[in-house]
Amino acid sequence: MQITGFNHLALVCRDMAETVDFYTRILGMPLVKTVALPDGGQHFFFDCGGAGTLAFFWWPEVPPPAPGIASVAHFPMDPKTAVGSMNHVAFSVPEEKLDEYRTALEAAGVPTFPVVLNHDDSRQGFSPDMHDKVFVRSVYFTDPNGIMMELAASTKAFGPDDIRHEARGPATLIERN
C-alpha cells in the first residue's frame, strides 16, 4: 500500500444546516461537495486543507448521542471514549494564530477549554508554560454535535527520538499483574 495522505473523516451530525453554519462561518471551512442520499439523508464535505475533507452524514432518524461512549464526556476530566469511537479531530493551525483563533471561537459563542495546552513529554503530558520540550500547542472545543475538536499548532517536527515507549494492551496489563 502507498498511503498518500488524509482523504476525509466522516462523522454524523444532528442538524446539517447547523453543521454547515458552524464549519463555514465559524471555522471558515468551505463546503465543497453535497450529496443527497437515496434514504433521505445527506452527506456533505468541508475542505479542511491539505487536500483533506471533513465529511458529515445526516439522516432524519439516528440513534442519540452517547457522551462518554462515542464522544468525550468532558475534557480534560474525562477524555476517554469507547473502543472504535472517534475521540477528537485536530486541525493544524499556525502557532502565531492560536490565541487569535481561540478568541474568535469565544466571540462566536463557542466555549473553549480554559487555557491553551502546551503538550510536552512530562509525566502529566502538558505544561502551563511554553518551553523547548513542547511539541504541540492546542485549543480544545466542541462543535454543535458535541464532537471534540482541537486547533493544534506543532512547534517541532517529530524524529526518531520521539518513539520512546512500548505499545501496550490488555495482554501487557495481565503480564504486569
UniProtKB/TrEMBL annotation:
Pfam families on file: Glyoxalase
CDD domains in UniProt: VOC (cd06587)
Gene3D superfamilies per UniProt: 2,3-Dihydroxybiphenyl 1,2-Dioxygenase, domain 1 (3.10.180.10)
InterPro entries: Glyas_Bleomycin-R_OHBP_Dase, Glyas_Fos-R_dOase_dom, GlyoxalaseI/FosfomycinResist, VOC_core
PROSITE patterns attached to this UniProt entry: VOC (PS51819)
Domain VOC: 5-154
Listed name of the protein: VOC family protein
Native species: Oleomonas cavernae
